[in-house]
Amino acid sequence: MSERVVAVGRGPVSVEELVAVARDGAAVELTEEAVGAVARARAVVDRLAAAPTPAYGISTGFGALATRHIPTEMRAQLQRSLVRSHAAGSGPEVEREVVRALMLLRLSTLATGHTGVRVETAQLLAGLLTHGITPVVREYGSLGCSGDLAPLSHCALALMGEGEVRDAAGTLMPAAEALAAAGLAPVELVAKEGLALINGTDGMLGMLVLAIQDLRMLLRTADVAAAMSVEGQLATDRVFAPELQAIRPHPGQADSAANLTVLLKDSGVVASHRGPDCNRVQDAYSLRCSPQVHGAARDTVDHAASVAARELASAVDNPVVLADEERVESNGNFHGAPVAYVLDFLAIVAADVASISERRTDRFLDKARNHGLPPFLADDPGVDSGHMIAQYTQAAIVSELKRLAVPASVDSIPSSAMQEDHVSMGWSAARKLRRSVDGLTRVVAIEVLTAARALDLRAPLEPSPATGAVVGLLRASGIEGPGPDRHLSPEIEAAVALVASGAVLSAAESVTGALR
Predict the structure, then answer these.
(1) Which of 56, 140, 285, 341 is catalytic?
(2) 133 and 265: one domain?
(3) Beta 164-166 vs 138-140: how paired, if at all?
(4) How many domains does the chain have?
(5) Is 56 a catalytic residue?
(6) Mean per-residue pLDDT over the chain, rounded
C-alpha cells in the first residue's frame, strides 16, 4: 500500500490521482468541502422523502417500476433490494485496479453534492479504498447505460457488509469480516442512497483513464521500436525531417517524427548508407510512414483524453440533486455513449499500431527484403529458425486485435422492459480495450526483441546511442544476442515485461531526454 493520501472533493480527480489510488494503493479522504456538499444534498433528499408527493429515486421504484410509490417504512428495504438484485454480475473477477478506479470515481461523484447520500456512506466508501478492501466485481453485467449498474452494485453490496471482497493482501473473504477487521461498520442504506451508489459510468471511465495512461507510454515505445527497425533495415531518416512534417501539420505526426529523428541521431548504421552510393529510392510504408500512423494514434488518444477530462469533471447520477434549488431532477447523464465511443476509437488505434509494428518485424525475417541479414535472423538457416515463430505470435495477436477493434458501442440491446431501450455497451468497449492494450504491448515487445537482434547482426556498424541503450537493456536483462536457437518464449515474456514497465522507453530516454 502507498503512504500517499488522495483528497477527494477539491475538484475533479486527476489522472495522476486515479492511477495512484487504482494501481499504487493510495489512501483516500474526503475534504471538508466535500463533507459539506454531501450534507447539504442529503438535507434536500430528506425533505423530499418526507413530502407526500412522490419523487423518483427517493420514494418510488426504479426504471420500468418508477410509477410505484413506496411507503416510508419500506424504503430501507427498497435500497437493500435494489443493490442485492442489481449485484448480478457473472464471470471472472475484474482486476483490482479497475475496481479501485471505479470506487474512487463513484466517491468523486458523491463528493460533488449532487447525489444525496449521507456523509457516513461516502466516508465508508473512502474507508474501503484506504484499507485496500476490494469488492469482487464480475466481468459481465453492465450495458453501459444507467451507468455500470452491476459492477457498482457489487461495490455497494460491500458497503452493506454483504457479498465477497478481497482484503489488502488479496485474500478472498466475506465483506462483513473484512470490514470488521479494518474497524469499519457497514451502513444501512436509506432513501436515494442505493441508486446514488450504482448509477454512474465509473467503471468504463476508470478503464479509459488507465488505458490512456498506458497507450501514451506505449506509443512512445512504438517510436523506439520503429527507430530500431528503420536503423536495422538500412532505411533513411531523412523522411522524418521537420520541414516535411510541417506541410501536413498533424501534431501527433510531428511529435512521432521528432522522436524518430532524435532516436536515430549519431547512428553508425544510418551513416553507413547515407552517401552517394546508396541506391534506395523509397523505404516501405511500414518504415517511412511510421510517424503518420503513430501520430494519428497520438491525436486519437488526445481526443479520448479530452473526453475523459470532461467525464472526470462530471457528476453522473439519476436523479440528480440540485441542492441550491432544493430539488431533484431526472436526467440522462448516465448514458455512456461519450465514453464508449472513444473506448472503441482506442481499440482501433491499438490494432493499427500493432499492425504496422508486425509489418516492420516481418521485413527483418525475409531474406529478399532485409538487406543482407540472414533469413529469419537465424544463426544457421535451415538448422535454426531464428525469429520465424516470434512473428507468428505477433501475427496471431494482431489478428485478435483486429477483431477487438470492432466497435461495441454500435451494438445497443434493449433492457428493463423497453424503458432502457438504447444502451452504450461502454463497459464491453472498455473490457476489450484492456485486452487490446495488452496485445499491443506484446507486439511492440517482439519488434524490439527482433530489431535488437538485427542491430547486433549489423556489427561492426554501431547503432545510435539511444537504440544501443535499448539493446544493452535487453542484454543486461538476460535476453541473449544472436546465436543458435534456444527457448524463445521466456525471452519474449522478458521483453514484454520491459516494455510494459516502461523500462525500454526509459533506456532510450536516458540518452535522448524525454520523448514527445
Answers:
(1) 56
(2) no
(3) unpaired
(4) 2
(5) yes
(6) 94
